[in-house]
Amino acid sequence: MLRKLRLPLIIGALSLFALQWLPADDNMDVEYAQILPLAPESMLLDVTRTSRGFVAVGERGHVILSTDGKSWVQADNVPTRATLTNVFSLGGRLYQR
């Protein structure tokens, strides 16, 4: 029995060892939210107040920022295109539930 398991165990160990030498891709399978001119007009599902103003989130991974609550600008480099349904601020950081 042990003799039958020896080759698969050796192959498995070698493959795990080889995986650590593969180059890491920083953007592996990450689709960033598209910067769109009408993003502030898109469906926004939640808003929170921060020390710098307001942050709203919504469909297509849109994150919209405002200092006064009247003029809004889309955030750059949001690493998702999924709908963001909620956001809250705690201790100067933003979180999604």
Overview of the molecule:
The chain is of the alpha+beta class and 97 residues long. The protein has one domain (28-95). Helices cover 19% and strands 26% of the residues. It has one helix and six strands, in the order αββββββ. The chain has one helix spanning 2-19; strands spanning 44-50, 53-58, 63-66, 73-74, 88-90, 93-95. The strands form two sheets. It has a four-stranded antiparallel sheet with strand order 1-2-3-4, with no helix packed on it. Strands 5-6 form a two-stranded antiparallel ribbon. Strand 5 (88-90) and strand 6 form a beta hairpin. The longest helix is centred in the N-terminal third of the chain and has 18 residues, at 2-19. The chain is globular, with a radius of gyration of 22 Å. The N and C termini lie far apart (49 Å). Mean pLDDT is 80; it is low at 16-21.
Briefly characterize the structure.
The chain has 97 residues and is of the alpha+beta class. The chain is 19% helix and 26% strand. The longest helix has 18 residues, at 2-19.
